[in-house]
Every structure is written in C-alpha cells, then in structure tokens.
Write a structure and sequence with these properties.
It is a single chain. With 659 residues, this protein is mainly alpha-helical. It contains 29 helices and four strands. It has helices at 2-16, 22-42, 52-67, 77-83, 87-91, 102-106, 108-118, 123-153, 161-170, 177-181, 187-196, 214-219, 222-225, 237-244, 248-252, 260-281, 294-313, 320-327, 344-364, 374-405, 421-434, 486-489, 494-513, 525-531, 562-566, 572-593, 596-604, 608-628, 647-656; strands at residues 460-464, 478-482, 536-540, 547-552. The strands form two sheets. The protein has a two-stranded antiparallel sheet with strand order 1-2. It has a two-stranded antiparallel ribbon with strand order 3-4. A hairpin with a 6-residue loop joins β3 and β4. α20 packs across α28 (608-628). The protein is extended, with a radius of gyration of 34 Å. The two termini are 40 Å apart.
C-alpha cells in the first residue's frame, strides 16, 4: 500500500500548491485506487470487510504525513499502529461484518496531536499535520455511518444468497455512491430505481408489481425461491441491463454526486460481483454446471442479447421468453441448462434482428460522428457474443459425438473409440513420448517398422495393463509394445506392470536431466538397480518358457534378471546405449534452443514412419480434447475427460502439441 499512499500524498501536495484541482485529483486517485484494488484482490490482500481498505489507507497516510516531519522520521505503519494501540482494532477487520465504534476513530485527532506535542512539535506543524490527516479520518467515519445504515437496510431479513449479492454490490471499494443510497429516506425504493429502474409507482412490470418495489418484494423475497438462491438468470438480467446503462444523472437525481471515473468503476464492480457470485455458488441453473464451460459462453451470450433487446425496447424487465419470441418460434425459459443451446438457426435469427437495430440507427442518425452512440455498442457486444458462441459450437458439436462414441463398447470389450483413426494416432504418439519409445517389459527400444502396417515386420500394440478393462481409453492404463510381447504382458499382474512403467519413467526423468550415475549423466546399471530396489516380478519367461516368480529387474548373484536375462535378445549394454543416445540428443537440443517441444521432437525424429503416419492426426485429436473442456464435466452422456489422461500425460500433451 506504500505506493498507493505515496501517490495520494503527492496529489494532495499538488492540490495545496494549486497545481491540480480537487476534482481532477479525485478522478486521478479514483483510477489509481481501482488499479490497486484489482492488484490486491489478485494477490489475496483484500478483505471482505467494506471498511478495511479505508481504515488501513487512513493509517498509512497518517504514518506518511508524520514521516514528512522531523519529529518521527523513522515512523512506520506498524510503529504507528503500536503507538495508537490500533493493532487489536485492525485484527477485527477479518470479520466481514465488523463495524468499528466511531469513538475509536474520533479520538485519533487528539491522540496524534498529543503525540506531536510530546515530541515538542510547534503548533503550526501540529496544525499542518492534522489538516492533512483529518480528511482521511473523516472518510473512515463516513464509511462507518454507511456500513451501519447498510446493515440496517437488511435488518430482520433472512440472509440469503440474493441478500448477500445486493450487499456486495452496495459495498464497492472504489465508490460510496451506492452506500450513500442507504442513507436516503426510502433506501429500498432508491436502490430498486438504480438497480432495476423499478420504483414503487412503476406503471407496469408483469409479476414484479406486488405491493411495493421489485427489489424488496421480489428479488430479495425468500418466498420466491425458498432458499433465496439465484437459480434463474431471468432474475439477474434486469440488474445487468439497468446498471450497464447507468449515467451520472441517475445518481444526481437522488442527490448523490459521482464522477464519470467513479461511475465506470462502479459498473465494472457490479458486473464482476454478479459473475463472482454465480461462479462461487455455481447455481446459475438446475444442473449446477461448472463455469469455465460451454454454459458460461451460453450465459454470456444470452446476457448480451438480453441487454441489447432491453435497450432497444427500453424495458429492463423484458423476459428471455419474450425476447426469444421476437426472433423465432422457440421460447426459452429463465433457467439455463445444457439443453438451452442456441441452435445455428436461432443464433442467425438473433443476429439478424440485432443487426436491424444497428442498421436502423445508422440510417436515421444525422452524421457519421453520432452513429456510434452508446446504444449501438450494446448491439455490437451482442453480435460479438453470438459470433463467439457460433464458433464454439462449430467445434463442440463433433466433439460431443466423439465423446459419446467413447461410451460404446464393441463385441471384444474395447471402446468404440479405440479404433478411431484420430484416437489411435494420439494414443501412439503419447505412449511413444511417455516411455521414450522403450518397451517396459524388455527394456528394448521399440522399432520404427512396428508402425508401417506390415505384419511381416511385426506391429505395435497398445497394451491394457488390466486385461479386464479393455474399454479404457486412458493413457495411464496402457503401455506401448509389439505384437510379439503383447500376450506376455498378460502373464504379469497389473500391479507389476505399473511398477515397471513408473520405474521406467523415473529413469527417463534422470536421463532427460542428465542426472544418471554414468559419464555425462548417462543411465547405468547402478541407476536401474537403485530405482527398482526391492522390486520383483512374475512373468512367462522368454528364456525358460515357463512362468517365473521373484525375478529382480537385473541379475543378482545366481538369480536371473528380467531385463538382462529373461528378456535378453539384446545385451543390456546395447539396450542402455540406445536408451542413453535418445537423451543425449534430447539434452543437446534443449541446451541449444531451450524449447522442450523441440527436445521431444528429437525422439519422434527417430520414428519417421510413426511421425508421418500419426503426428498430424494426433494433434487433431488433442485439439478436440481441448474443445471438449468447454463442455464442462457433469454433462449427461459425455465421457469424462480425466478418463483420457491425468496430470503427467496432460503436461506431456502440452509440450508435444504446443503451437
């Protein structure tokens, strides 16, 4: 906060020296305060208590003012809090409902004056300091009055999510304008006028006209939704439509002064607060779909379209059903679900009518400079939102079909998607990169000829480690091998296969880092034994032709090893040389370019047949998985994305398919 206080201190000095008008200072400071508020929120330094910021700012400013005198040049914020016995008071601001006693702040002027007198400061210095400090104390006292009046506003009312939303909207950190409304003789009526343009004497209003204003008797009524939750977007859209169109006169007509900068900050605050409530509570619709999904795109589109039509009709309360009737036959409800997808035809219909609003203004306005009125920007915003939704849905529709295919099982027990050319390509490329083209059972390097489609040179096989889960599409359930070893894997326990896979991953990690025990960080027998210490396996041996048990990873005395004896068509030395060669190229490229993708490409370059046949298709499938993230995670009939990969594979995917 030091920089923020320093800016305010310098601006105050400029006003005192007539280098700046108070009005311009307030505008500049308002912009800076907005930026700092976003910064504090981003780094988790903000608190929900509406008075916390003003109180802390005032104390920092006191410390800065006293620091500018010779009577305590080493004064810090912490020192001041200790001197004024304020530490305990500030700790209470962790409670969002805490409102300090006015007497505590009213006594500060005398305490600071007394402190300076003890330091034998002249009267003119004391007077000068107080003149600079008192406005900030008065600001806190005003905040205390406003906080008390805001609490009184909801006194006796059940605390519901809707009450909390309106309370958070009122408590804007960058403006007291809405808090000032709570001091008016009829605060609920004034709030209804500002938040929805619906006073008590509103001449219409459909179901909202019930013995009083909409805000008090409808939006905040617990009887409307029982829980007071926000389950239908129709209840929130009037507030968005109204606050988007705020003008300075809307506040001035109520006797509340506000600058344009402050008004802009207040508009942003209302929009952000609404989104935050919807995000936190995740109750925008009955299905509780996650934000950050297609639902969010749909919601933002419906919101933008609603605002555009509300502006055109000059009716913030126009319902989604009424709005949809204006452009097509389908009638949408106020409840947003995945089934509320705007189809291509409806998107075109909405776009056409909003374009007609825009074109009408262009043809009827007097000259070019008046054509881009504020009204037109609402229309442009809606058209952009519709265009974005259309683009997203063009991607999402085929992805939906792909994921639904993943649910189906063929006669052999495999997922129907398992033989899909795009999935197969992605599976191969990812499994190749996962274990660096190394067969976990034999520690042999997989040959590029496995991917040429010629059965005479053997073929690749993605092996399911649990043969009872052949329907799995997950990378973490598979290892890549050849058709010669495929059935041999099935003679091992699933747990043993997973130990092999994870141990091989550890060796690959050491190889990529160059942290092996050999020269230049190469992987050696020592590293293999260390990684697999205490691990033994049971498998149908290629050496003896029978099921062997308690096999160590490498030979121990007279006990034969898995990689060097039971699967020893190549010598362990040859296997290690090929294994290490891959990492030499990997590290060399990464050292040269600093690019992990280029480093991984040195591995795929050793598999030109696989790379040509599968890399492009694999990237297409990976892009589809990215698009599938828009669908959220709780959609009926859709295959969960975490059934494809987990964090390790996701990180590898980000590297291999990076732009």
């Amino acid at each position: 906060m030091n920089w923020q206080v320093e800016i305010a201190f310098k601006l105050d000095e400029m006003v005192r020296q007539n280098q700046l008008t108070p009005e311009l200072k307030d505008t500049i400071l308002g912009e800076f305060n907005s930026l700092f508020a976003e910064h504090y929120k981003l780094y988790g330094h903000s608190k929900e208590n509406p008075i916390y910021f003003s109180a802390r700012f005032a104390l920092y400013m006191m410390a800065r003012v006293l620091y500018s005198t010779p009577y305590w040049s080493n004064l810090s914020y912490q020192d001041l809090c200790t001197e004024l016995h304020f530490k305990k008071e500030l700790d209470q601001y962790d409670d969002p409902d805490h409102v300090p006693e006015k007497a505590i702040w009213e006594s500060l002027e005398d305490r600071i004056s007394g402190f300076l007198s003890e330091q034998e400061a002249p009267d003119d210095i004391i007077e000068s300091c107080l003149k600079k400090i008192v406005p900030y104390i008065e600001k806190v006292l005003q905040e205390i009055d406003l906080a008390n009046s805001a609490k009184d506003l909801f006194e006796g009312r059940t605390v519901t999510p809707r009450v909390l939303l309106i309370n958070d909207i009122i408590n804007c950190p960058d403006s007291d304008a809405l808090k000032m409304v709570t001091l008016l003789p009829a605060p609920m009526k004034a709030l209804a006028l500002l938040l929805a343009d619906h006073p008590d004497d509103h001449p219409g209003g459909r179901l909202y006209e019930i013995n009083g204003n909409w805000l008090s008797h409808q939006f905040l009524s617990i009887g409307l939704t029982r829980s007071g939750d926000i389950k239908d977007i129709g209840s929130i859209l009037p507030i968005i439509a109204r606050t988007n169109r705020w003008e300075i006169n809307d506040f001035n007509n109520l006797g509340i002064e506000i600058t344009q900068s402050e008004l802009n900050s207040l508009k942003k605050h209302v929009r952000a607060t609404i989104y935050q409530h919807l995000y936190d509570r995740n109750t925008i619709n009955h299905q509780n779909l996650m934000f950050g999904s297609l639902t969010e795109v749909i919601y933002k589109t419906i919101e933008s379209v609603h605002v555009a039509i509300a502006v055109h009709e000059d009716n913030n309360f126009i319902g989604i059903k009424e709005a949809s009737q204006k452009v097509g036959k389908r009638q949408y409800t106020d409840y947003l679900t995945q089934d509320t997808l705007l189809g291509s035809k409806t998107i075109i219909e909405f776009s056409d009518i909003i374009k007609s609003y825009l074109l009408h203004n262009f043809y009827t306005d007097g000259d070019l400079w008046t054509r881009f009125t504020e009204e037109n920007y609402y229309y442009i915003d809606a058209l952009n939102a519709l265009d974005e939704l259309s683009s997203v849905q063009d991607i999402v529709r085929p992805v939906r079909l792909m994921l639904r295919q993943a649910i189906g099982i063929d006669t052999r027990g495999y997922s129907l998607l398992f033989t899909n050319p795009l999935y197969k390509a992605w599976d191969i490329i990812m499994l190749l990169g996962d274990l660096f083209g190394t067969d976990a059972l034999s520690f042999e390097s997989l040959e590029d000829q496995l991917f040429d489609g010629d059965a005479n040179t053997r073929l690749f096989q993605p092996n399911h480690m649990d043969k009872t889960k052949k329907d799995s599409l997950a990378l973490y359930d598979q290892v890549l091998t050849n058709d010669d070893y495929h059935n041999t894997y099935h003679t091992m326990l699933e747990a043993d296969q997973r130990v092999l896979k994870e141990g091989l991953r550890k060796l690959i990690y050491l190889g990529c880092k160059g942290s092996g025990s050999g020269p230049n960080g190469e992987i050696t027998e020592v590293d293999i034994r260390k990684v697999f210490r205490g691990k033994t396996f049971s498998v149908l041996s290629r050496l003896t032709g029978v099921q062997e048990t308690d096999i160590p990873i490498l030979r121990q005395g007279n006990t034969l090893g898995l990689w060097d004896d039971h699967f020893g068509s190549q010598s362990l030395t040859d296997k290690l040389n090929i294994f290490n060669e891959k990492f030499q190229d990997f590290r060399s490229e990464y050292s040269r370019s600093g690019d992990l993708k280029l480093a991984y490409m040195t591995l795929y370059d050793k598999y030109p047949i696989a790379k040509v046949a599968f890399m492009n298709k694999a990237e297409l499938f990976n892009n589809k998985l990215g698009a599938a993230a828009l669908l959220g995670r709780n959609i009926r009939g859709i295959y969960p994305l975490n059934n494809f990969m987990r964090l390790y594979e996701a990180l590898l995917s980000d590297i291999v398919f990076a732009p």
